[in-house]
Specification:
By secondary structure, the chain is α/β, with parallel strands linked by helices. Helix content is 29%, strand content 24%. The chain binds adenosine-5'-diphosphate and zinc ion (2 copies).
Length: 661
Amino acid sequence: MQTVNVVVDVPLARSFDYLSSDPIAIGTRVLVPFGRRTVVGIVLGAGGEAAAETSLRSIERVLDDTPALPAEWMRLTEFASRYYQRPLGEVMLSALPPRLKRMPTLRASALRSPGQSPTPEWRFIDEHPLTAPQASALDAIAQGVGRSGTFLLHGITGSGKTEVYLHAVAATLRRGSQALVLVPEIHLTPQLEAHFRTRFPGAHIEVMHSNRSAVERALAWRAAQIGSAQIILGTRLAVFAPFADLGLIVIDEEHDPSFKQQDGVRYSARDLAIWRGHAAHVPVVLGSATPSLESHANASSGRYQRLTLPGRARPGSRLPSLALIDTGRETVQEGLTATLESAIEATLARGEQTLVFLNRRGYAPVLACNACGWIPSCPRCSTHVAVHLGERRLRCHHCGFEARIPPRCPDCGNADLQPFGRGTERLEESLAARFPQARLARVDSDTMRLKGTWEATQGAIHAGEVDIILGTQMLAKGHDFPRLTLVGILNADSALFAADYRAPERLFAQLQQVAGRAGRDALPGQVLIQTRFPDHPLYRALLAGNYNRFAEAELLERERAGFPPCVAEAVLRAEARSPEAAIAFLSEARERAPADADVVMYDPVPMSLERLNGWYRAHLLVQATQRASLQRYLTLWRTAIEAERTPRHVRWHIDVDPIEF
Ligand code: ADP
Ligand code: ZN
Ligand code: ZN
């Protein structure tokens, strides 16, 4: 008998030894007894001959429906476990598709191996001769092939980034390697998949995201691992896909916050992809119109190679003209200035489409009693509930709590309850009243709740069956609409003065993305932004089309204030049934922190949304000038916290490179 070392998904930072009659390869999935359960584990290594008298239990079964996970995958998950301070078993097993991490109940026949399938007959359809900037970007990436290198492909919407990805992927496939393409939300952008399928006829393309069925996910995983899938397109979870021969990683919209997982293993798929590319000697291409400040700084310091696509790729396609409407000078009626109204009028008259962007769903963000000032708030969160008039409901946008709109004020009995502010539902009402002849489409997570609605709406817009599209950031992503020539942006100012230091960066990215929807074809586009602060540097940089100037100014600001990317940071976050318990836990954890000259630890404070879903949330920020010292520090500190008993009704975790405060 021999011993093998196995990790399972338990909240313990250790592995376990089991007995096996035969040696088992590293990376093999096995069924093992754990306590009174049987669970799936992954073999980390061999332990050697077992002692004659041993209390170790035996492996129950070796799972051979997929081959052993490759060494490169093992290194990736080991790194993620160290970097994000989570147990290796949790990281490895949560990376597996659901079907492979649970006990096999029925015989996993769908997975039974057809053996190594022959490389399919595929072609790449080369649509356009590349522009000079595209060609030199592709050249640079091709030179990085076979060794590591991170490239920041910076170009506005329509500058031809996707075209560069497609060519780089084609070059990868020609060498017989596989390509991984990560995108923020693939179900919102089905046309990317369509692009790949039409441009690579015959190629084996797999799509990975959490909306796919368990069987599909397991099959895609397996196809990547045995090397039959040539292109994997996926959301952040696809960064953990195993590959037989990975040759290229592309991350589209690399600045998008949805690459960061916000629970469990709080990883950044972008950052892990960069690490993975480096470790596997594979080039990584980060694409964006508005790179994250992290990537911008890395490109400026020379750690990444910056590749710029300066204009729109398609001949004759012009940039939209941007203008600000000063709402301090013009009155706003029902959300719209006269200038924006007449621009919509003119667009309708030309038979073209308008997009009105308002990043707030519902009818109004608050309801208030006109007599006593009562405002309904969420019983579970520290926030007001929004008015959804169509359904006559109040709804919390953080936890989903719902209640009927009360007929009168519960405090004073007054029946005059008034909605304040404006969401997309109210905007739709006023647009319908103002432009009765126009066909409207509202796009937000309320109207698009049903699967397939967004695709259908995009089809209707394409077919010219819609005149005015209004909605939230959902609209920022998606099809090019060739007849869309006017974009109106309402109420963007609120993000200018948010407490979150990343708010301006996000606002810039969002506005640039929405603005990029205008005039993608030969028709010239126009973007009108209503603002009370027309002189704000963010709007000035946006108007000048100068993202780099904005990024430099923001970086300087971050440096002065001591924020990332100028420092590395992490938070210890606690959630408890009372605010005092959360703070008390953090104060005690602070006492147990190691001493390190490079690490600064702040006081425990409540999070900006303190109460969420009944839990009071607080956190403690740590910063260091060096990432490595922060890593060392967090490992010691976590061990110290784990050594003590966590009080009942308190839960905690460490979030490395947090984006939520
Ligand atoms: P991005 O990904 O930067 O938004 P795309 O690659 O989607 O840009 O290109 C935008 C549009 O320009 C697409 O319709 C594409 O077909 C077209 N295009 C891209 N590259 C070229 C080129 N070299 N010549 C002509 N048209 C191009
Ligand atoms: Zn009242
Ligand atoms: Zn709530």
